Amino acid sequence: MDSVRSPDAAPVPVKIVVAGGFGVGKTTTVGAISEIPPLTTEAEMTSAGVGIDNAGHRVDKVTTTVAMDFGCVTIDRTLKLYLFGTPGQARFGFMWDDLAHGALGALVVVDSSRLDDSYPAVDYFEQSGLPFVVAVNAFDGALANDLESVRWALAVADHVPVIAFDARDRLSVRDALLVVLDRALDRAVSNSRS
Description:
Elements: E1 12-20, H1 26-33, E2 39-44, E3 63-76, E4 79-85, H2 96-100, E5 105-111, H3 119-128, E6 132-137, H4 147-154, E7 162-165, H5 170-193
Parallel strand pairs: 1-4, 1-5, 5-6, 6-7
Antiparallel strand pairs: 2-3, 3-4
């Protein structure tokens, strides 16, 4: 059997999870790069969330993801990424296992001005063993803390990439997802050697 892919073969589907705390830019990340109109499960925020859901400096946030976001992007003729964005609030955390099932890796989106909201996502992927990248969203084009401070504050291991990106910018999101793919490939190669 010939192991070379046919030039007209369908791209290999790869599942990537886009995770993080509430209001960090997960929905924006998926929407910025998806080649289809993204599926979102946004619901209006109500007064019941006051004091529970804190979007930080984003006072204009009026909706929240209650199930997931979904989008896809073809990287090249051999690879297509299917992006699954998680809800950010702890009360929807029960969905994370289902969303992460079968994923090759994860992009953990972080707001560097609200690092406390990032601990659950980082902990989840450290415990699951799924390769992940910490992507610090540059709200308004700037980071509240430098990347080394973010790494230290979140106690992220040295082998986990911590990068800056802009969730609104398609090319920036693409570059962040390519780091996730590199991380997953590194993991696969090291596992095959053991």
